[in-house]
Q: What sequence folds into this?
């Protein structure tokens, strides 16, 4: 349990709105300010979406470029991870920002149901996104919404489509997808350890499940993700005041289980990332 725990903060996402919680950062300036506070609190990865000024999600590369530049300026060494998720674009548009060479990018390797739609990740799109990440030396974070996604990620690792050490994140608690269930979590950890013993893993809990999934990860020796993208509330009554506050909760859990919090430099070493720009 002396292994440092990497804390990822998902700062804004594409669903929470200002009316849900005024703390959700929308503009580039708000995102930078919120991320800096979370970085100071202990986050070493920032999972990034971008939005238009009215809050509409977008995959505009120019906005991603501005965000990346400002984060590198104000959060030296922070691992910048871009989202290639489907809520802010379709097809190749989802990878249009990858030539900006972020440290990491999310990669979902299969389709699944969301609350009101299908999250489509067809094989040709998955292979194209993976090839772009290889081209620009970007490490994928596998976002596993289903057991099959773990198996597919391992297959892609073995045949070279995903080079280097795998980093797999279990996304738990999305309606109609993987439940936030401790037995399921334990089996996913067991599956990763069996199929890819050198891989690193983490998990994200959605909504009210965020804190409990944070604790499962930290207690089991993995890494964890928090932030306002996944959960705009600390509980059913109290609004989360900031991304930094959610990171601080994860840091408290690390202290509870005797886990040091990974610095950005330590996280880069653990994940085998290139040095900071």
A:
């Amino acid at each position: 349990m002396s292994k440092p725990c990497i804390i990822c903060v998902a700062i804004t996402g594409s669903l929470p709105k200002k009316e849900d919680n005024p703390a959700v950062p929308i503009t580039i300036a708000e995102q930078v300010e919120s991320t800096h506070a979370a970085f100071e609190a202990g986050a070493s990865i920032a999972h990034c979406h971008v939005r238009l000024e009215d809050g509409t999600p977008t995959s505009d590369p120019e906005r991603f470029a501005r965000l990346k530049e400002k984060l590198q300026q104000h959060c030296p060494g922070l691992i910048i991870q871009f989202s290639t998720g489907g809520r802010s674009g379709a097809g190749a548009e989802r990878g249009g920002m990858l030539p900006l060479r972020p440290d990491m990018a999310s990669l979902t390797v299969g389709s699944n149901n969301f609350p009101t739609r299908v999250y489509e990740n067809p094989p040709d799109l998955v292979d194209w996104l993976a090839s772009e990440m290889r081209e620009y030396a970007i490490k994928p974070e596998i976002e596993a919404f289903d057991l099959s996604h773990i198996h597919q990620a391992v297959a892609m690792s073995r045949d070279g489509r995903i080079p280097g050490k795998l980093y797999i994140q279990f996304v738990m608690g999305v309606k109609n997808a993987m439940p936030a269930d401790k037995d399921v979590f334990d089996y996913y950890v067991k599956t990763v350890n069996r199929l890819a013993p050198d891989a690193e893993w983490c998990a994200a809990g959605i909504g009210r499940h965020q804190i409990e999934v944070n604790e499962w990860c930290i207690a089991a020796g993995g890494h964890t993700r928090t932030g306002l993208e996944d959960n705009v509330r600390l509980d059913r009554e109290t609004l989360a005041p900031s991304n930094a506050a959610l990171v601080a909760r994860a840091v408290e859990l690390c202290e509870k289980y005797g886990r040091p919090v990974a610095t950005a430099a330590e996280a880069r070493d653990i994940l085998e990332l290139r040095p900071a720009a």
Notes: The first strand starts at residue 7 and ends at 10. The chain has a mean pLDDT of 94. Helices lie at 28-41, 61-74, 123-135, 147-158, 182-195, 210-220, 243-256, 264-271. The chain is about 35% helix and 15% strand.
